[in-house]
Amino acid sequence: MSDEIDLSVEKDAPTPHLGKVVRDWLVVVLIALGAAMLVRVYVLQQFYISGPSMQTTLMENNRVLVNKLSYRLHDVHRGDVVVFDRVTTNGGVVAHDDLIKRVIAVGGDTLSIAKCNVIVNGKQIEESYLDEASGSSQNLVDRCRVVDLEEQTIPKDKIFVMGDNRAESFDSRSFGPIEEDLIVGRAFAVVWPISKLSGL
């Protein structure tokens, strides 16, 4: 038996051309970027919290992940935290703002507010997510800004949203119920800062 090894295959193996290597890597990078863009547009997107309206559930500078597929698979539920597109016009200029609020009532529900207490379908709702400190204020305006609101029925395919920080939130109490079609998605996790990583 011979101990010699035939190295002819290795010697004859072609060296990859630099241009081909670059091209292959470029294809991989483009596919990865395309996939990331598709995920961002249709599946998941990160949003930055820039105001106090959802404190203390969400603080300024928090970042949240939003599932854009949620409401293609199931209905909007009371208590969901949603990002939606609020369209405004000012002197003919159309502006789009992404707002994040909590769903308080859905289409077909009746809603009213009495001395800061939110009543949906004839029952005061439990709101454990509200800040206890602001909720204990004796001044009702300081506590919730809109003390009373006459009963209304939420139209089909619309939702009534409010911020968890009732005294600092511009929401459906001011601009009314919003179309479900304006919902971008459901916020389901705080991802920044890492120390605040949690579900919603």
Task: Please tell me the CATH architecture of the largest domain by its name.
Answer: Ribbon
Average pLDDT confidence is 85
| Distance separating the two termini | 71 Å
Largest sheet: 8 strands, antiparallel
Q: How many separate helices? A: 6
CATH topology of the largest domain: Umud Fragment, subunit A
Corresponding CATH superfamily of the largest domain: Umud Fragment, subunit A
- SS-based structural class? alpha+beta
CATH top level of the largest domain? Mainly Beta
Strand content: 25-35%
- What's the helix-strand series? HHEEHEEEEEHHEEHEEE
Number of domains: 2
Provide the helix percentage. 10-25%
Radius of gyration: 26 Å
Which residues form runs of ≥5 with pLDDT under 50? none
- Strands, total number: 12
Q: How would you describe the shape? A: elongated
Structure, briefly:
This protein has helices spanning 8-12, 18-42, 70-73, 132-135, 140-144, 172-175; strands at residues 44-48, 63-67, 81-90, 93-106, 110-114, 117-120, 123-124, 149-153, 158-162, 178-179, 183-192, 198-199. With 200 residues, it is of the alpha+beta class.
